[in-house]
Structures are given as C-alpha cells and as structure tokens.
Design a protein that fits this description.
The chain is built from four helices and 14 strands. By secondary structure, the chain is an alpha+beta fold.
Length: 262
C-alpha cells in the first residue's frame, strides 16, 4: 500500500465546475430575457406607426458617442414617445416604425422585441452542452480516483524516475499548468511514454525526477506524482535503477529534464 495523494486529480474538477457555473449563469440570463420578451409579447398588444423620430445621445465607456432613436406615435389622438432599446454610433432610425404598447397604458411601449423566441430558446439550450461536458468530466475524474485506488493495491512503486515537464495546454488564472512526462522501461526492455495528470499544485518544483506506481502487467494503468511512498517505509528496490543494463537508454537523466516556467 502506498501513500498516494489524490488531490491533484480532484483539483481537475474545478475546470468542469467552471463549465457548469458559466452554463448555469448563461441559462439564467437567457431565461430572464426569454421571460421578459414573452411578457412583452403578451401584454404589449397594441400597435401604432410612428410618424417622426429624433435622437438622444450619450458617450459610452470607450468614449464613443452613441445615438438612441426616440419614436413619436399617437393613440386615440394623444402623442407618446418610445425610446429604442438599441443604440448605434451613427444616427439612424425608421420613420414608419411599428410601436407596440399596452392598450390600458400606451406609455408602456417597445420598439420591437429584442430577439425572436426561437433564438432565445436555442441559446438557452446550448449551455446544456457545457453542463453535460462538466458532468462527464467530473465523472471521469471520479473514475480516475477509483482506478488509482485499485492500482494502489496491485501496482509497483518506482521512485526517482527521470522525467521532463511539458505544458498541459491548460491555463488557470493566467498560469500555465504543467504535466510530468517520463520514458519508462518495462520488464521486457521496451520503453513506454507515460504522462501525468496536470499538476495544479503551485508548489510544484521540477528537479528532474518523479515517482510512479504502475501495473506492469497492464502498463496503461499507472499514476505519476512528485512524491509517492510506501506506508510502511520505502525499500531499496523501489528506486529506479539507472545503472541497470536494461535502462542504458535512460542513464543520462538530463535528457528527460526540461525547464518549464510555472
């Protein structure tokens, strides 16, 4: 039995939690827009045609001047105005714009419904894909933890295996996340390239070596970390034998070490 730290696998879940959180927030926003639009469509049943328009203006956060059309329309001989919900950097509008209003209170109006309902529903359903991806990712990580726990019972501990560090192509808070890569020689003399989970620990230091637990009957089952120890104390045979003739191709440990800015 070995003292294996599973936290690095579990930390990988934060990526999937972010996927799910972003999707839930997006669904909430689009759901709010959908409800608001449906409410407008149900209540603003009156229609009038504008007979003139003018513009109000303001400066946005980038310092650009923006123009908002204001439409004039009449209901039962009384004049009302309705501001557009859209602004542009150039003054533009329609003279005969359809204005939707509340029959019992014509001052409540809209120059148009912001988005078609089918469009809103489409973009409400799309984030469900992110939720599915998040759930699948979390489920895979849970299976990885279970697999490593099983490996803990049958795997072989190999300490101080020469390794190099590569980019995992994952960035968290503008920090590139590394991973450990090693060339390991099996009992039959063949070499396999083994890659660790992304290393999220900010305290990670690359000294050119890492520890390995591997099922040599099935080399696809393995786990790499910077420090793995036997619970009852490490043994001499646990250490990777660089002087072994079968390991001649790995005797120069520096060939597996690369610098990585983390």
């Amino acid at each position: 039995m070995y003292d294996i730290n599973y936290s690095n696998i579990k930390k990988g879940n934060m990526i999937w939690y972010i996927f799910i959180l972003v999707a839930v927030v997006f669904i909430g926003i689009m759901g709010f827009i959908a409800i608001t639009t449906l409410s407008k469509q149900k209540t603003l049943t009156g229609e009038a045609t504008s007979y003139k328009y003018e513009f109000s203006s303001y400066y946005n956060d980038d310092g650009n001047k923006m123009y908002t059309p204001i439409y004039y329309y009449q209901v039962n001989g009384k004049e009302y105005t309705c501001s557009s919900s859209f602004s542009s950097s150039s003054p533009s509008g329609e003279k005969n714009k359809i204005i939707y209003y509340l029959p019992s209170d014509p001052e409540q109006c809209s120059t148009g419904f912001d988005m078609p309902i089918w469009f809103i529903l489409l973009f409400t359903l799309m984030p469900l894909l992110f939720i599915v991806l998040g759930v699948v990712g979390i489920s895979k990580n849970a299976k990885k933890v279970k697999s490593v726990k099983e490996l803990n019972q049958v795997g072989k501990l190999v300490k101080k295996v020469p390794c190099r560090v590569e980019d995992s192509n994952i960035t968290v808070n503008n920090r590139r996340i590394p991973r450990i890569v090693m060339e390991y020689q099996l009992r039959d003399g063949s070499f396999v390239t083994l890659t660790s989970e992304p290393i999220y620990d900010k305290r990670f230091v690359n000294d050119g070596f890492a520890d390995l637990v591997i099922d040599e009957n099935d080399p696809s089952r393995y786990y790499i970390d910077k420090n793995i120890n036997r619970i009852d104390g490490n043994r001499a045979e646990d250490y990777y034998n660089l002087n072994n003739s079968n390991n001649a191709n790995t005797s120069n440990e520096t060939q597996f070490v690369s610098s990585f800015d983390i």
